Amino acid sequence: MSGAVKVLPLGGLGEIGMNCMVIEDDQDLFLVDCGLLFSELDHFGVDFIIPDFSYVVARKDKFRGFVLTHGHEDHIGSLSFAIKAGLQSPIWASPFTALMVRERLTESGFLDRTELKVFHPGDTIQVGSFKIKTVSVNHSIVDAAALIIETDMGKIIHTGDFRIDPTPFFGSELDLSVFKEAGDQGVLLLLSDSTNVEKCEHQPSENIIQKKFEQLMNDQKGLLIISLFSSNVGRMGQIFDLARKMGKKIALCGRSVEQNVRLAFESQYFKGSESLLIPTDSIENYDRKNTIVISSGCQGEFGAALNRIAYGDHKSIKLKPEDLVVLSSKFIPGNEKPISRMVNQLFKSGAQVLYESVQEIHVSGHATRPELKKMIEAVRPKFFIPVHGEYRHLVFHAALAKECGMKDTQVRLSTNGDLLEFTKDKMRFVEHFQEERIFVEGRDGGDISKLILKDRRLMGETGIVFALLVRDQENRKVLSEPEIISKGLVHESLEGFLIEEAKVRVKEVIRQYESSLQDGDYSFDLQEQVRVELRRFFKTNIGKKPVVLPIVMEL
Ligand SMILES: [Zn+2]
């Protein structure tokens, strides 16, 4: 017997991204997914947010590896950071996921240290004491899997990200009978994707996109530029398929698109389509109305291919009035402004632009309420925890489980850091670990502490003031006039006057300091008093307290 089973989400519960879940018994522990969160703090130099692995690192002896549900960044993007933190057991992944992991770990130099074990969805794998059946699911990336984890306390089902699509481009419809069968045998806990729970209606199949693309290609008068998430191999497969049937050529634009198309060829998804590709830099030699560009940058990312095309900065692709740009993706919340700016710019260049709110050119890879309901009804778990979603998504998904007949005691609204323990019939909250998320600069960069982040934010909001004083090492007297320099504080025309006034204040502090020295009192903290006085001075005069850095040099 391996005793109770513990479940601890390190990320993904309360946010879209950073999915990472600890599953643990007395002997063994593994992680389901190891994702990152793209940061909204990029203007402070924070590129990613990753989970805090310290709980797992402290139990390294029983760590048996990572099991990945699919290759999206919010499921695999933190692997190199976890490995850097000392977790180096095998990584289990489906074929396409494994290729994506291989690319990431090659970039970060960790591939040699890692054992990558490939499973085909449908396979059963053994991870320590846990027997895990992997199940193929539909999602916006190929080779996605749900996990049915056998534990001594019962089955735990982790859906990963999924939807139920009767006609996906690659593969077949998610087989609910596998989940029903598990439900018949009894399932202890269901952890299910909540991303799209707010949508009540059935969503169309991915194949409506192919019909739409076919129509656009038929009507094509100029270049057709389709921008999408570069990992959406299924959708790119539809473009390749249509281009082959209609005798069109494809140019790739953007590093991530090129990389994922290369992986799709390697994993045989685009078999026989090599001849369709043309070099992007020779696009002008081809008939525009028979040329399709697949481009990255559908979120308006600065510096990405589509943004450069929009602003006329792309070296090979210059837009012309008959060209059509299609954003075949969701506008991710938080990205609306850069996307809008880019769409406006595309229109200004004379091209036509289609996007989700004006035409049906995107369907989501996440289950909506009717599909989520089918999953709960198939599995009929003893306990249910909604995962993968912002807090409100988790609330709606918990409510949906109750609509399906589950009792309050069976449904748990958990957030990151909630350690829960399961026995055959009981779910017990053990403790909450204060959620520590780690801010990272660059894909292989270092951590940014909360203090650094606070300083960067303050400097950005208020500017910075340096005050330089020189002091005699022997008698501790200040030797010269204070120097004050400011950056980003006020308009240049006011700066001179303000700095002179600030110097007067600092001189007053120096006077107080020297008078206390004369009294034989050496406790006066010159540096701190200058800081306090200057912050007070600027607050009174310009209404904000800048970051003040007093520097006292000893000579
Ligand atoms: Zn996903």
Structure explained in plain terms:
By secondary structure, this protein is an alpha/beta fold. The protein folds into 3 domains: 5-201 and 364-447, Metallo-beta-lactamase, Chain A (4-Layer Sandwich); 207-354, 3-Layer(aba) Sandwich (Rossmann fold), CATH 3.40.50; 461-554, Ubiquitin-like (UB roll) (Roll), CATH 3.10.20.580. It contains 15 helices and 28 strands. It has an 8-stranded mixed beta sheet with strand order 9-8-7-4-3-1-22-23. A 6-stranded mixed beta sheet has the order 10-11-12-13-14-20. Strands 16-17-15-18-19 form a 5-stranded parallel beta sheet, sandwiched between helices. A hairpin with a 4-residue loop joins strand 3 and strand 4. Helix 5 packs parallel to helix 11 (369-379), helix 6 (207-218) packs parallel to helix 7 (233-246) and helix 14 runs antiparallel to helix 15 (526-542). The protein is globular and about 90 Å long. The N and C termini lie far apart (71 Å). The mean pLDDT is 91. Zinc ion binds at residues 70, 72, 139, 161.
